[in-house]
Design brief:
179 residues; mainly alpha
Length: 179
Amino acid sequence: MAEATPYDVDRARFSRQALARLVLCDHAVDVADSARGLVATRHDPDTGPGGRVSHARWLIDLAERALVSAVVYERERGASWADIAGYLGIEPSEAEARFTADLVRWDEAFEVPYRLDETGRKRIPQLPTAAYDPAWACRHLDRWALLQRLGIDDEGAVSSGLVMAASDEEEKDQEGVGG
């Protein structure tokens, strides 16, 4: 399915590393927002027995998703399996075995960015939303970071640090330097 997607032009401005970082940022926001829900005690009487355990379990699931996103990002920026494994406290071969399927799905999503639903009429993105529509992700994540005061008054706390794709002119210049 090589048809163009609605966000191809926007996505082309971003390197795969930047797209992976946006996905990690988006998943980190999910973890942070979910964790915030465990802090307040006012509504504990409204939560059934075991309800906070359910919420904490959901938080772990979100954190696992963020971990996968972090591995994809680190691989996109050149980290070795040994680098990643060192932080996980496991062997490099274990890290590779654990996350290879996630990396394959990430790679395949760039080849086939969406699939059609069972009716054949609706596109279902294969990339995570933040990578599929990075312009939206930058606006959303920059606004979230500003409201959380992560960069104090930095309106580009997320988007300003991304490694963007080289333009055609920059690629030509780089080819001339190396060639």
